[in-house]
## 1
Amino acid sequence: MNFISDNAYGASPEILAALARASDGTAASYGDDAMTAKVAARMSALFEREVACFPVVTGTAANALILATLCPPFGAVLCHEKSHIAVDECAAPEFFTGGAKLVHLEGADAKLTPEAIEQALRGFSSGVHSPKPSVVSITQATELGTLYTPGEIAGLAACAHAHGMKLHMDGARFANAVAARGCAPAELTWKAGVDALSFGATKNGALMAEAAVFFHPDDARDFDYRRKKSGHLISKMRFVSAQWDAYLEDGRWLQTAAHANALAARLAAGLSKIAGVEIAHPVEANAVFAWLPDAMAARLRARGAKFYDWLPSQDGRVMARLVCAFATPEADVGRFLEVAGS
Amino acid sequence: MNFISDNAYGASPEILAALARASDGTAASYGDDAMTAKVAARMSALFEREVACFPVVTGTAANALILATLCPPFGAVLCHEKSHIAVDECAAPEFFTGGAKLVHLEGADAKLTPEAIEQALRGFSSGVHSPKPSVVSITQATELGTLYTPGEIAGLAACAHAHGMKLHMDGARFANAVAARGCAPAELTWKAGVDALSFGATKNGALMAEAAVFFHPDDARDFDYRRKKSGHLISKMRFVSAQWDAYLEDGRWLQTAAHANALAARLAAGLSKIAGVEIAHPVEANAVFAWLPDAMAARLRARGAKFYDWLPSQDGRVMARLVCAFATPEADVGRFLEVAGS
Amino acid sequence: MNFISDNAYGASPEILAALARASDGTAASYGDDAMTAKVAARMSALFEREVACFPVVTGTAANALILATLCPPFGAVLCHEKSHIAVDECAAPEFFTGGAKLVHLEGADAKLTPEAIEQALRGFSSGVHSPKPSVVSITQATELGTLYTPGEIAGLAACAHAHGMKLHMDGARFANAVAARGCAPAELTWKAGVDALSFGATKNGALMAEAAVFFHPDDARDFDYRRKKSGHLISKMRFVSAQWDAYLEDGRWLQTAAHANALAARLAAGLSKIAGVEIAHPVEANAVFAWLPDAMAARLRARGAKFYDWLPSQDGRVMARLVCAFATPEADVGRFLEVAGS
Amino acid sequence: MNFISDNAYGASPEILAALARASDGTAASYGDDAMTAKVAARMSALFEREVACFPVVTGTAANALILATLCPPFGAVLCHEKSHIAVDECAAPEFFTGGAKLVHLEGADAKLTPEAIEQALRGFSSGVHSPKPSVVSITQATELGTLYTPGEIAGLAACAHAHGMKLHMDGARFANAVAARGCAPAELTWKAGVDALSFGATKNGALMAEAAVFFHPDDARDFDYRRKKSGHLISKMRFVSAQWDAYLEDGRWLQTAAHANALAARLAAGLSKIAGVEIAHPVEANAVFAWLPDAMAARLRARGAKFYDWLPSQDGRVMARLVCAFATPEADVGRFLEVAGS
């Protein structure tokens, strides 16, 4: 019963098999291989427009490299105070940008609003004494398992663009968002005004495969220099690209994400019927945030359940984060509910 | 007949198989897994002392993170003018260190000497107007396929340490060096005074697996922060560690390196008998640098040979770099010699 | 009636005269001159212990260089959300440190508390995923014209040190704090646990003279490299040092600060008697923050008063920042009160 | 007899007087004052076109900020191996740019040639593995007291621009160059293709006053953010601007430079007649580089002469650097020659 993170599981068998196939023969290194070209074409097809796509191996690299590309050293990135870039990347964006400022904003369910952005910008009225607002960054699905609607994204994009800023989307769990929304990837990104996407595959079945996707290739003019300079250009790139190829093939990425989403929905539905449990945030993707009585949490752990205390215990209960992954066994959900309700 | 780089080949079947095995079940992420612990223990056993070992996925990351750990932002790294860190990493060390200076030194066969270091240091006599000499970095095997002896390394270490500097070894081809020298890894590193090693596996059969190894763990106190901050902490770390585990198992790494070295030796021996060919540097590891008549080079390429022009054509001949890898077919060497000599 | 900033006035005549005297003859450059040595000795005498003192020309340089010295690139600086380093230096600390994170904390009257620090640290429990808490930075006098007591500073220092952090004090208005508290500079700094001070003279009568002061000289071991590397080592340093010499001579710095403090106290006292005015923060140094009715603010400006709207107009009144400086004419205070009360 | 540096002397009386005048009354801070506007207009008039001009207080700041503006973090700056930015600024450009590479080129008399640039660029043929060549930087007058002709500058500019690079001129001794050449400042800069100039006043009579001058203001769009972020925006900016105003007034800057140049010429002429002395580089500005017999150098020092050993003693003689400054007494030259020839 491992609900601790989507990183806890290994990799999809199809992706592992793709790695073995990709190993045959010789290939050009550093991304000049045929598999990488194939993935680039896949990405443009997937997003229904020409995109600039750069495979990397961590989400932090994708986020920080995109932000460094869009935000100058003297710039500011506006983001939610709970966002991964704000609190879980050891200030990587500050390093990659050369010292830009991440401005932390509040917002319910880990979501930004145009109002919060407008209010923050009023604090940037003193010229060069404040960094230059350059990027708005949102996470989809969010760190609290919630989703932005295409309309909400469009509203944020309009606000960002009106102030000369770009809109970045951290899509570490973009698959879960697309699967949940049931709309085209384009609808959730550039059609709504997103300029660049950190597109994740690792959490949803790859070994280590993420991608920086720019919807306006001009923005990415020099991205390849930054990737190399930060040590993120993989010499045997075909091994990253092969993961992407297998991930996107036949809609596999949406099937695995749908599996995780469905388990989360079932888990939330079950928990909400158990006395003393309170669902803390809307369950819209593959994570459930729920207040559990301390005794219930202890009982679950004693029976082998693994999960993360999102907030420490207060008033006799703890907020648990329960993440369902592409490979989470359905039986684990049933067993978790059984122990919780016992 | 692909001699263009050791990156041109895929991965060892045993390493691919290890990845598939590593995928089973759940595991702690970000390096807190059992496989990563096993590799750490393997490394200490291999080097006959406790080392601090940090798996990463590129040699540039290993080099730049080690240099940033050992060299302050206001420091200088003394290295050969042809070294990978000097000319092939898009100035990654300058970025990771926060602006340290790489001081390029000359030396035959891509090797540094204590004399060159002493001479360079005489230019750093003006206090804070020059950066603070902090690290000497050497490559083993070198970018020209040559080797340092343990005695040469000890001489460089003594020089570095006498001036308060650390000694770093870029071991992207460390396996080839150890296999060629036939001595223990410890003899080529800490016993000779090396403080930190960029230990490569990618070029010798891994998909993407390198490691930063510190022989004095105190030096590495904060390395893990730097790795995370630069996006080089892999979430499903077991997939990097599993490559290392299979690489080091049963001496596989030395067998594959010995294969590559043997082919290079055979290639050099054969070429040296062909009129008009001149071996440019001692062939001590897995690369041959040879002056080939332009016509011969053209003929080889017409017949499918791939190799890199290390120096552009001059006086009717070109300096070719011919790299043999862990998976280079022995027959390719024979065929190359046949075409060259025809 | 210029209350807009302590930067609005020029320089003390004694400091200007000192510059002219310092210009005579030749001197060693880059700080190796006799005047700079004299100032170093003065500083140690002033603080009643050996300190390491580095003159610079801006407060941002002093702050950012000290923070870069005490906080690694992967570190975090805990500071008040209204502090100058947080909002008025274009993220200079992030740049100088190489990407450290400034963690903004709340606190009444722009003051930090040990409780706020302890609470923030609870969010840094996930190892390398968060930057390493390294420095607590406070401002004395604060950006809201308030003061820490020696006991409050000692409490913050104890908290910082217990967590392995250093305590930095931004003393752009340190003179006003010392003059107001009436205690020795040592009491407000190292005796209370402060590790490093940004000591300002510019706002209080110098042309451009600040200093980084380290109370434990070992901490400052490499500060001089950082100062040079950031372009802040002045070639004709005697011209910065001469300002410091004249500033500290005969207690001049405390006399000018006391003048500014007294005017602020008089201004606050007068304003507090005027209907519709509300003093927003305790007036403990040389600045008054007061809510003024919009009409009163407009009338004052129409009559030539200059001041900064700290907060925009709301509910018919605006929060004005009124700063008194070393050279503010006493008559301006009387006239301001007269117009305000008319 | 102080010939050690142009920094050894204080400041011109007229500039000191200007500081005292500038101190009167209140003024807007951070460069929004009337004196700074006046200097901006003076600069445009001086260069016969609209320029963007940013006063700073050190040459290192001017150089590093300009380079960071023109060269991305992943870029390369091509410069002479003896240039100040290469060897005397503690790698400030590497820091300000965020890790760009300075590529050191050889060239007689500290001067670059288009040939040297073309040859260096041939080493940058491997795409992102090398940093992107972005700026050529030259020094006028050079670190060896020599000058570029307008034609030489035009040749370098043509070469730089043809490769998509900008041309920067380090003009710490620009006054000496203009005075020596006797042509308009525009002829030595933008008319010859220079994009940005570090314009120095400190060495030639100011206390601390330099300026970054961009001849195409668009290039400088965000320079002001970088200046603030690096702590180089002076709060009481009028005190820097007043130095510039007095410096440029009535051609004072060219008179003082001409004085220094004339003394250097006289010194060189005298030395060249003394047996055993050899002038090492053409004396075209205010510095003389001369080989002096060791005994002569010792005798001069015993009699109070101060100068810098540019190269250490070899074969019984030392290369002395003898710098004449705006305030060097003419009698000192005579006395130096007398002692040297005795």
## 2
Amino acid sequence: MSRSSDALVLFANEAFYTAFGSGDYAAMDDLWAEDAPVACLHPGAAPLFDRADIMKSWQDILTSGPNGMMSQDARIVARGEVSIVVCYEVVGQGALVASNAFVEEGGRWRMVLHQAGPCPGAPSMPPGERMSTRLN
Amino acid sequence: MSRSSDALVLFANEAFYTAFGSGDYAAMDDLWAEDAPVACLHPGAAPLFDRADIMKSWQDILTSGPNGMMSQDARIVARGEVSIVVCYEVVGQGALVASNAFVEEGGRWRMVLHQAGPCPGAPSMPPGERMSTRLN
């Protein structure tokens, strides 16, 4: 798995937060894998394994429009046919931490796993570095 | 990735909960990958990316001895060089849900990611089926 693949995986991770933060359901739907098994573990909720159920959950979350959710300090934890990114999710003054996994489907990286949970906070970073990414 | 590899991945996932539930720090230490990047996201805590920090956290958790934590309804969400298992974590009357990822290192599957978070509860299952596993 090359560094250029790392960049594409991190790009997919950013695309997820762009869809999430802007309330763009169509982009979110496009991002999730269609052929591979998928799982979505929203904070405090039962896990979802059915793609239709997962997309219904995102429709409910995104229906209120843009929420400003963005990622911070994304890093690739594992790379291969399945690649995993861990990042902070920053919204307002709060932060969560997430594990996001992607597989290649139709020549692009699509999401197969999202788990997010609360954490004490994201590390303080100058605003200009908030969208920066780190590679292991 | 063959079905027999699935079984080995699920075996590693069970080994994680055996170490966790029995308070076996040595087994927990043996389970985590040593060469690959690792990440551990305990509920409500900042993510840990340094193996020494992760093992220190497990030492703190396991120091009080057996806690009875066990997995339920484990299923493989993604398979490949990196394989991901999602399962319930059941302890007493409570349940969490976890994403666990493994890579092959030295001929066996070792953990590279653990994220757990609270969930409303695990599905009701007869006690005899609690340790059963499901493959996608």
